[in-house]
Amino acid sequence: MEKRYPITAQMCMTKDVGTHGNLFGGIMMGWMDEAGAIFARRYTDEHHVVTVKFSEILFKHPVKVGQIVQFYACNPILGRTSITFDLAGDVNKQTVIRTTCTFVALNEGGEPKAVKIAMEED
User: Fold this and answer.
1) pLDDT category, 1, cuts 50, 70, 90?
2) pTM for the full model?
């Protein structure tokens, strides 16, 4: 079984849904970008990370008002200046969203900089 790193959670509110009562995809994508950045910063201990890529985003199930989406990272791969990992969002232990994303660390001048693992591996 793959190691899952818990990142953060978001609760779906009335303001976040459309006319069918489902969470807007754009809201979910914003949450995913924030969760990804949090994990990239924690894993590398870099303060400045930027989104480089999100692969195909699979919306597996709708999210309804009051449901809490728990975000997890899996399979982190460290590059020289980047980190790539799978990002999943679960509601009640059911995966509702999944993608792979890449973030790059930047120095104070906005140029890519080398990264290292900062989190403890179990």
Assistant:
1) low
2) 0.93
CATH number of 4-105: 3.10.129.10
d(CA 76, CA 87): 10
Domain residue extents for the chain: 4-105
CA distance 64 to 5: 24
For residue 7, count CB atoms less than 10 angstroms from its CB and return exposed for 0-12, middle for 13-18, buried for 19 or more: buried
* Residue entry with tokens 């914003």: 30
Torsions phi, psi for 9 (to 5 deg): -140, 155
Query: Rounded distance, CA 16 to CA 21, Å?
Result: 9
- pLDDT tens digits for range 10-62: 999 999 999 999 999 999 999 999 999 999 999 999 999 999 999 999 999 99
CA nearest to 115, candidates 91, 93, 83: 83
